[in-house]
Design a protein that fits this description.
Pfam families: AMP-binding, AMP-binding_C. Helix content is about 30%, strand content about 25%. The protein is an alpha/beta fold. Among the domains are: about 25-40 and about 45-180, 3-Layer(aba) Sandwich (Rossmann fold); about 435-530, GMP Synthetase, Chain A, domain 3.
Length: about 525
């Protein structure tokens, strides 16, 4: 096991093997096996329409793997990959798996304050970037990173390399198979402050993650999956994402951005059947679809996750986009929850799904760590065959983030229905304490989203000397913004308790987002308090 990674207990390794969750195959089997079984089927489609069959993509990954190995990259070395949704990301990902080099998957939105610490923590020997994406030149960032990180031996660029190296290719070579219990890659935690922590995902657990997610989402060889979110995001990569689509023998289409203009054109051109987005993007698509001339008739399923999708907009997906909705609630650390395709409309719109795996263990506890009564709210704790046992090189944090018996403390506040479905009620810190009255931000946001003049809503607490906190509702309006008086009257009509009514309403054109596309409530509070970023 790589130094700095928390090993799986031997009894769980044997249990997960015996119960069939772990198959001791390399994660690369998703492409290699597809190339054996259906070599001529289309595996990957770029935004410009360029296509690769499973056999062609498999051969491309082999050539890159040989090129990297020829330059001296070796198993268990770490590299940082920061690529947009380009075909090279997919080929490189499988190539790194074949060499045994461990990719740290950074997001395109990351900048120096994230990339340098990631490279330092992982002791990265290589950094993979595009030349530019939008108006940002990653080569400038690479120059800074190279000066700051002594371990960095290579910078590989897709596009105009400048003084750096092109992605290498060479004649394929035989490479040893990896240990399936060992890490295959590192994901980043979705924290909103500080440097993201590294999440080791093994071949066994991530392969199960992708395959089981694909099965519960109804993926098949006829699936055409559009990658609208960054491919390095756990949701778009393997929940079920592009890896799940390949596990089912389907086709992956890459979108350079999630805008309605881009996505709707690709859905029509490639007859996309499923895609996955975060709630703000789903809201935007539903708002503009009536004004766009796009044929979305092929779209069968919209997966929404990354943050809670409130019931008001969730109930409008079918009538606006003409497809089914699947809510997905999970974490890069492991546990995934899906509404099932045969769930009732009520479950699909009001819950965030039930655990993926029969071996997922879920505890819901109070502030003292004691289990709450059935149906009561509490913090979600979990462990299972695809949930991490500890962050990489984070012994002190792991002592706080895990119980003594290995349950991960998610920080999410949930309640569980008798059906097993979870209802997400926010984060422990996403609750406003107004003079001793507790106000769940998610609940008030859901009411606000029902207002005909509100496109999106985010509720935060304002520091207050008398009450401790008061409530501010940030809204993105549809047209003219409603006043505080109008919002209050609307909420009263819906039966909202007086103490939950917002003390202030602020209208914005758009919300600040974290690097993973969630609303940054930290930044919203800073705007209220004038605190430095």
């Amino acid at each position: 096991m790589l130094d700095g990674c928390v090993p799986w207990p031997s009894e769980l390794v044997e249990r997960y093997r015996a119960e069939g969750y772990w198959t001791d195959q390399p994660l690369d089997e998703l492409l290699r096996g597809g190339a054996r079984r259906h070599p001529e089927r289309t595996a990957l489609v770029a935004a410009d329409g360029t296509r690769w069959t499973y056999a062609e993509l498999d051969a491309w990954a082999d050539r890159i793997a040989a090129g990297l190995h020829g330059l001296g990259l070796r198993a268990e070395e770490r590299v940082v990959v920061q690529l947009p949704n380009v075909p090279e990301f997919v080929a490189l990902f499988f190539a790194l798996l074949r060499v045994g080099v461990l990719p740290v998957l950074a997001l395109p939105a990351h900048r120096e304050s994230e990339i340098v610490p990631l490279c330092e923590l992982s002791e990265a020997v290589a950094y993979f970037i595009a030349d530019t994406d939008g108006d940002f030149d990653y080569r400038e960032l690479a120059r800074t990173v190279r000066k700051a990180v002594p371990s960095l031996r290579h910078v590989f660029v897709v596009g105009d390399t400048a003084e750096f190296e092109a992605l290498p290719e060479a004649a394929p070579v035989d490479l040893p198979a990896p240990d399936p219990v060992a890490p295959a890659l590192f994901l980043l935690s979705g924290g909103t402050t500080g440097t993201p922590k590294l999440i080791p995902r093994s071949h066994n657990d991530y392969l199960y993650n992708a395959r089981a997610s694909a099965e519960v989402s109804g993926f098949s060889e006829n699936t055409v999956y559009l990658v609208a979110l960054p491919a390095a995001h756990n949701f778009a990569l393997a929940s079920p994402g592009l890896l799940g689509a390949m596990a089912a023998g389907g086709t992956v289409v890459l979108a350079p951005d999630p805008s309605a203009d881009t996505v709707f054109e690709l859905v029509e051109r490639e007859r996309v059947t499923v895609t996955a987005v975060v709630p703000p993007i789903a809201l935007l698509w539903m708002d503009v679809v009536d004004f766009m001339d796009a044929d979305l008739s092929s779209l069968e399923l919209l997966q929404v996750g990354g943050a809670k999708f409130n019931s008001e907009p969730a109930s409008r997906v079918r009538e606006t986009l003409g497809c089914d909705l699947q809510q997905v609630f999970g974490m890069a650390e492991g546990l995934l929850n899906f509404t099932r395709l045969d769930d009732s409309d009520e479950l699909k719109t009001t819950t965030q799904g039930a655990p993926l795996c029969p071996a997922d263990e879920v505890l819901i506890v109070d502030e003292d760590g004691s289990p709450v009564a059935p149906g009561e709210s509490g913090e979600l704790l979990t462990r299972g065959p695809y949930t991490l046992r500890g962050y990489y090189k984070a012994e002190a944090h792991n002592a706080r983030a895990f119980t003594d018996d290995g349950f991960y403390r998610s920080g999410d506040v949930v309640r569980q229905l008798p059906s097993g479905h979870l209802v997400v009620e926010g984060r422990r810190k996403d609750q406003i304490n107004r003079g001793g009255e507790k106000i769940p931000a998610e609940e008030l946001e859901n009411h606000l989203l029902a207002h005909p003049a509100v496109h999106d809503a985010a509720v935060v607490g304002m520091p207050d000397e008398v009450m401790g906190e008061r409530t501010c509702a940030f809204i993105v309006p549809k047209g003219e913004a409603p006043t505080l008086r109008e919002v209050t009257a609307f909420l009263r009509e819906r039966g909202v308790a007086s103490y939950k009514l917002p003390d202030r309403v602020e209208a914005l054109e758009s919300f600040p987002l974290t690097k993973v596309g969630k609303v940054s409530k930290v930044e919203l509070v800073r705007r209220l308090t004038g605190a430095a970023g």
